[in-house]
Design goal:
The protein has 16 helices and 13 strands. The protein starts with 8 loop residues before the first strand and ends with a helix. The chain is of the alpha/beta class.
């Protein structure tokens, strides 16, 4: 927990349980809030499998989150001894929401309760077990995907709002001292075999540095999320191009065919890369990436990406403008601080002085770029 004498916000985090690289995005947000909000942070160290079964059964029989909380024990949990204005729950998946009840008395001690669910998909919402999670205990639900907003609101009777991903732009911003971009292309995460193989061939034909994953599967585990984010930010700040496709573009059976803005768009744009790929085909991408050429469209089935890169390399002024615009617009629109302001507004709380000073700094940095 923080050393702040009277923080108004208590953050619930999964950082002691979920070590996947993908989760580092939201842990980065939590860290920022501890700095600018002076928040306390709690993370359970057990998934409490037996408690989860008891809670779900009690919730199913009674239809009451309060009753299920009362009869479910979470050994070695936490008991609140003071009040908070806001309980902010951050989870990558709604399947872990029941763990908030490892904090005894949280609903009585917290004036407002809000959760942010980074990811969930329409096929999950009809699952009986998921419906027993304590969605109804919150005053407001924020979700990082658009297509589940209406379904969550209807099922659980709570206000539900889309909150797009973001990034710690200060960490990813290459300014005020931009490093040399010695990596030609970075392609991290889920990838197109056609694009990947084309880029590998390019490395055998010319002096071309292509950075890509070599791990098996998508569940890369991280020992220190802050070091991982620093390393990833430094990698992107040194990359000319980054390949980005909409979230989980190659697993339609999991997403139900829905297209969403993934975190990679925000990270790569903030770092000033020129993004190549396909954005989601929804109105939200145009809304949140509303400047000229945030991404150059490249079909995932293409085998001629070398020609695309060669054509772009012949236009250095265009590339420089794309890079500046991407970074500046992220500083102005897509820092986690702006998402936090939206949450505070939803519950009627004002941002702290430190939050507003941080926003002023981001605006000044963006102005200096342009």
């Amino acid at each position: 927990m923080s050393t702040n004498t009277k923080p108004r916000t208590l953050i619930f985090s999964l950082r002691n349980l979920r070590f996947q690289a993908a989760n580092c995005c939201v842990y980065e947000w939590e860290d920022l809030l501890c700095d600018i909000e002076g928040a306390d942070l709690y993370s359970p160290k057990s998934e409490y499998p037996l408690s989860r079964k008891i809670y779900r059964a009690a919730r199913s029989v009674s239809g009451s989150d309060k009753f299920a909380r009362a009869i479910t024990s979470f050994p070695d949990g936490m008991t609140l001894d003071r009040e908070y204005d806001l309980f902010f729950v951050v989870v990558d998946s709604p399947w872990y929401l029941h763990l908030i009840n490892s904090i005894k008395g949280w609903r009585d001690k917290c004036r407002h309760a809000v959760c942010f669910i980074a990811e969930t998909w329409e096929p999950e919402l009809d699952d009986w077990a998921l419906q027993q999670e304590p969605f109804r205990s919150f005053d407001h639900i924020f979700v990082g995907v658009t297509h589940c907003v209406e379904g969550l609101a209807k099922r659980f009777g709570k206000p539900c709002t889309y909150l797009p991903p973001a990034v710690n732009t200060q960490r990813f911003c290459p300014y005020p001292d931009p490093p040399e971009r010695s990596i030609d292309v970075a392609y991290v995460g889920r990838r197109s075999p056609e694009v990947h193989n084309s880029l590998k061939r390019l490395t055998t034909q010319k002096n071309f540095f292509y950075y890509y994953d070599t791990v098996k599967g998508q569940y890369l585990l991280i020992d220190n999320h802050q070091e991982h984010r620093d390393l990833f930010a430094n990698l992107l700040k040194r990359s000319r191009y980054a390949i980005t496709y909409y979230a989980k573009f190659n697993v339609a059976e999991e997403t139900g065919g829905q297209q969403e803005i993934g975190y990679r768009f925000f990270e790569c744009a903030a770092a000033g890369t020129v993004m190549l790929g396909i954005p989601p085909g929804n109105k939200e991408f145009s809304k949140y990436f509303d400047w000229d050429e945030p991404i150059i469209k490249v079909d995932p089935r293409t085998t001629d990406i070398a020609d695309v890169i060669a054509e772009l390399d012949a236009q250095p002024e265009r590339l420089a403008k794309i890079a500046r615009d991407n970074t500046a617009n992220c500083l102005l629109k897509h820092d986690w601080t702006y998402r936090w302001k939206d949450i505070l507004e939803a519950v009627g709380l004002q941002p702290t002085e430190a939050t507003m000073k941080h926003i002023d700094y981001l605006h000044q940095l963006a102005n200096d770029i342009n």
